[in-house]
Predict the structure.
Amino acid sequence: MIGADLLRHLPAWLDVAGMVTIGSPLAHGTFDVDRLRESLTEPPTNLAWWVNFWNPQDPVAARRGVSSVIPWMTDFRISTKKVLIAAHAATEYLSNESVATAVGFALFGSRSKEIAVLDRGVDIPLEDTEHWALMALRYAHLVMAELTGDQRDRFAGALRQAQAETIEKIKTRNASEHRPMPSPVARLAFDLSDPQATVPVPLPVSHIAKDDAALLLTVLAAANVVQPYELSISPAIRQQAMEHLTAEMGLGHQYGTDVFTAAKRAREALSSNGGVNWIKWGALGVGAFAIVAATGGLALAAAPGVAGGAVITSALASFGPGGMIGGLLTAGTLVTAGGSGITYGLASSGTTAQALEEVVVGRLAAAILRQLQHLEPDPSVYSALIELEIEVRRNHQRLSAFSDESAPALGELQRKIRTVERALKYLTDNDLAPAVRSEPPAQQVLV
């Protein structure tokens, strides 16, 4: 067993380390040497991966994996013919082919004998949009890895098209701006006209701070990463892929779990019948365009926070509202944008109640995720919803003065009001609203 002190000082002797453990007793309630479990609530800085092999017959392993107490690592269950203490023997574990493969990979790398294709491109920092696209493509490949049968085949075909289009759009945009292609992006290009051409798999995404990742992953979890193709992927599979992604990013498996927990709670808070529909940014449809039209593009011109920077109108002009990148940029900016521009667009009778709901649930989900991850709340969420409620009620009052009570436009506005009210109530009930500061009592002057 590797001690906590050694894990904390991995950078002193190895740049990036992987770790293999066998029959670890860390899941046993009575075992916590040097408070190791408490020390490992977060992945050590330079521990790239950790896989633990466990045998359900092994009593030392508490007949379960270590991920039950350290959720960011990976467990792999194997079977041996021995039982009780004999099942804990190192010879039983090390004679297993899966254990040997993991150890060999840690020592020597991949066993692949395929010809390595040299990366094309230059080593320059990724721009925000490029980083966003790589994250989405990596997530898409992780989703595909969880699929089977016909669904996997169809998803692979859709992903093939989406990746080719994404890389081509980045290439075209970069050429127009006289910007070279970064090597992590360039290596993903392939000949779409060749049906036998292998689709390159994106490399694992680099680390992002928890605070910066909250909105990014909330939007990504709700995105259709093979847009414009529509495949119904179960939330369980998408969550599993998200957990793998956040583990790769150094955020831990639990962060990925919390992304979907936050989305589920946000939907439940806004649902009138208790049902839960997952966020689906592709469903925004014309609602997103109505918001853009109503604000003259201002709602998308000053959207801070996406990929650590501002997503400006020129990015959407380059990629268009369609496709994977355009969909992500539109969703990210609508969720992040604040101020009168986005408020006016959402409150407008030309924007559907569904479009408003998607934006509100995105902001609420990001707020819940921050709470689950013990991050400081974002005060702009509450203030933006208050401003939105005022504008929607103002529109409702203006139209109701002369419209029939059964007018569809009034029904849409009433639905918007209920949505915002529920979101504000959730924030207030769950300590996510700004604290009300009471004025100190006036001092009395004795005469």
Q: What stands out?
A: The longest strand covers residues 47-54.
